Description:
- By secondary structure, the protein is mainly α.
- It has one domain (3-82).
- It contains 4 helices and no strands.
- The longest helix is centred in the C-terminal third of the chain and has 27 residues, at 56-82.
Amino acid sequence: MNTDRIYDAWKRQKQTVDTSAGFTETVMDQVQRYEQQKRPSSPRVHQFLVRIYSHTLTKAALVAICALLGVLRLVVVAVAVLN
């Protein structure tokens, strides 16, 4: 079967689907309720992250720690492969 025919048939099928009169309002109400029920982030965590990202030296230390952990991982893999 031609792919254009398949696509056109799918489009016609999708056009025939009916929704209830208040479908959009119901969905948007559920989205709004979900957003209101979400737990706000802790102010302590937010303040901690702001402090980390506001200091250049702290960011450099985090990058150095991550680099060391990456090198350590490579060493562990190399040792495992060589043994």
